[in-house]
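Hi V.,

You were right to ask for the full record rather than a summary. Here it is.
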Amino acid sequence: MGIYLNPGNENFKRALAADIYVDKTQMLAVTNRFIDKANNYVCISRPRRFGKTITGNMLAAYYSRGCDSKGIFSGLDIGRSPEFEKKLNAYNVIQIDMNSEYQNAEDHDQLIKTLLRKLKREIREQFADIHFEEDILADMLLRVYTETGQTFIIILDEYDVLIREQVGTRLFEEYMSFLNGLFKSNTLRPAVSLAYLTGILPIVKDKVQSKLNNFKEYTILNSRELGTYIGFTAAEVRRLCEQNGMDFEECRRWYDGYRPGEEEIYNPESVINSMEEKEYGSYWGQTSSYEAISERIRMNVTGLKEDVVRMLAGERVEVNVTRFMNTMNSFKTKSDVFTYLIHLGYLAYDKKSGTCGIPNREVRQEWLNAIEEEKEYEITDQIVKESRSLLEKTWEGDVHAVEKALDESHIHVTSNRSYNNEDALQSAIYLAYIYALNQYTVVREMTAGRGFADVVFIPFVPKIPAMVVELKRNSSAESAIKQIKEKRYFESLSHYKGNLLFVGIDYDEKEKKHTCKIESFMK
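Predicted structure:
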């Protein structure tokens, strides 16, 4: 048993011993199907704290010849698989955590040379009967394979750390040569039964592509059959909430929003912390910095600010996720910026609509923290902070407060002081009422009565009124209220009982002013 070559199962044992453990071992049934086949080089990219490292430790414990893990896995989900023992502890595993190697290196310039020296020393120690004439890592692995028939599984965690840290050219090129030697050689490939890489960013599309373009990628944009194994599913979170006496719907509002495949995926770090603390809060943000957002939203990219404001207001915006080169210096369009933030977890992508948005309440707070320090978003930050007061004024029926707030907010969703379409008017509503996202589910174009209500605010906290908002241009607030009543938009709230506010809003393009009318209705 070594540090890198054929590690033990201690790291995975620690995960199992935690107060909360969600069994993801069925993923091994999937990776077993990859072994010794054409698609046996895979790369998993996810945001921080989504379970990439614990999954790598699980693979190492299951496959490594350096330990006996039958007792560990026989009681887990994979233990019920008929193929369970066939590949158990049957491979030489090389496990490398590149983030730890980089962060702990005394001399970053010597990082790759030092790592290679350690790897080759362990190979010589564990295969003392083999005479290695070569001093090249790939050749040594091939020698083990040709003389013993034993193959290797390579697990490389945080493969992209040197890309994200933007290291110097020399170190980067040495790293590329290291990867090329392991993964690009057709001669070595028969000796590698499985290569499993993880990172935050997908494989870079320029310099690294020639080294790693033989990997099949499972990203936050499209994770296919591995989608449910990195992150928690809704069913798993619901079960945890039931076991810990926590409200599932509230958990969904705080931590849901990601859909790399067909199912909703939650941030495991935040879910586990909320279960242990018995309180929902921003746990993911405590382990990171919103600087990643700040650095990008201050970039002078056409249309970036307008779309950021729309997303802050609860909307989704279109994004082209195919252009980004997955590097730290290839930000040419707002889509590049948004795609980068999707991979980091600060935005969530909807493949069906081709849009992105802020995924949940926890991440929204990181965005609000970021804009608070950005001068370009100073007025937006002021509107956000005044939003709570606006909501209370709306409950009180203070139409003048509503009109004034909308006059302010619509400046930030249009390039001029006029709405060019109804979407811009709705964006102004969302921004002015951004605080309402803490207490309401906000539905746009909701099927209601005999038509579609423009914006409906459905409360998920007690003792506050629901709101139906109808928007008009160059008409009157009274006509908006009349339409709500005539088309019976309130009937869409079939399960809601209590005070309901009808809010009619009109924008006069000539005067560049809003007018508002509010009526109360008991349902």
